[in-house]
Amino acid sequence: MISASVTPLAGSAALVPAHGLGGRTDLPVDPALAAAGAAAAVAVSFIVLVKGWPRSRFADPNAGLPLPQAVTRVLDARLFVQVVRAVAAAVTVFIVAVAFLGPAETVNNLAPWALYVVFWVGLVPASLLFGPVWRLLNPLRLLHAGLCRIMEVDPEVGMRPLRPGVGMWPAAGVLLVFVWLELVYPYEAVPVLVGVLMVSYAVLTLVLALIFGQKWFIAGDGFEVYSTLVGSMAPFGRRQDGTPVLRNPLTGLSTVPATPGLSAVVAVLIGSTGFDGLSRTQLWMTSVPPDSIPLGTATLLGLVAIVAILFAGAIHLSRRSMERAGSGRSPVQALRPARFAHSLIPVALGYVVAHYFSYLLFEGQIALVLISDPFGLGWDLFGTSQQWVNYFLVSPTTIGWTQISAIVIGHILGLTVAHDRALTLFDSRDAIRTQIPIAVLMVGITLTGVLLLLAV
User: Fold this and answer.
1) Most CB atoms within 10 A, among 55, 90, 121, 143?
2) Where are the domains of the chain?
């Protein structure tokens, strides 16, 4: 528990990046009562959908108000894209240099904070507000284009085609490795290791992009895929013809294609936040050694697998329900996990906000302190090197209710888009029948998620 209003940066061992909740553990909310209330809210929302949502409202991919043409011209200008990617590349090179040449102590080196806090956590609000920002900023796309010109390789298709069935499976693997490093591996924040990871990932991604073309970024760059999925819920998006528009975020979410591996990506995101909550419970911390990599790995993989199996099981039960009701073969075949996996995106987002909200708010201040003296040379470039971390920017009550609200809203939105998708595939009665197992799943995950979030 932090008992002072501000905490100095130097010598604070509690500030080492590890798990998401960071900063507060004294949330004044009764876990059982909060979990029951959250589950009840999700259940009631399903009843409201059944009674008051008889037709699809998000099926039009071209819905939205076009942005001013001046804005469109800037966003689509090749020079603008190249400039922002060049800036992102320069920042990345700077962070890698700090990782190798800056202070050896994690608490005093900017690189771990830049990777695990500013980039990994900050990517979520940035994408949620402005869309798939990493697809725009991704410096690896700029480097890929340059290498393709030098090597006379077509950047679109690369050296060989990427199999259509690959989908997002490589991205799911990338994200699984990253969350394992963040949540299980005890030395993930060692500055030199951060530098090695960033360089290695860049080299591997560029090699695969040279082989398979730009499609690799869509399939295998886990961070771009992550930003794109979160960005589908942004108020800014594009129609099918590429026109930038202001739209209902749920309309954008409903346009996410039923790509192979999408379910795996969201299972990784939900399962990893579940592990984050579990690993912060008193039971885990008192019974599992902090450096127990095998047990941590097995638990993380197990939770990811459980999420995937439960979701696939809910879809299977929906199919069985349709078959028992005598529905035709075609509608039943439409019940595939990939068709409804987009409904898990707001669920995953809700857990990410719940687990990382206070982490970004508090630990994000450390990056502002370290940026003034990135190489530990006694600089004060921005006048922040003597700044202290203020852990009382918001109250514990605000944090607690923000976390619970994020989980509940995420599940309600997930139910909403799943119900809306069902209405595009089936008549109203069959749509309701297919959604009952999914609703039960959502209620169960809500109950478990809130308990893990608030358990001590």
Assistant:
1) 121
2) 6-454
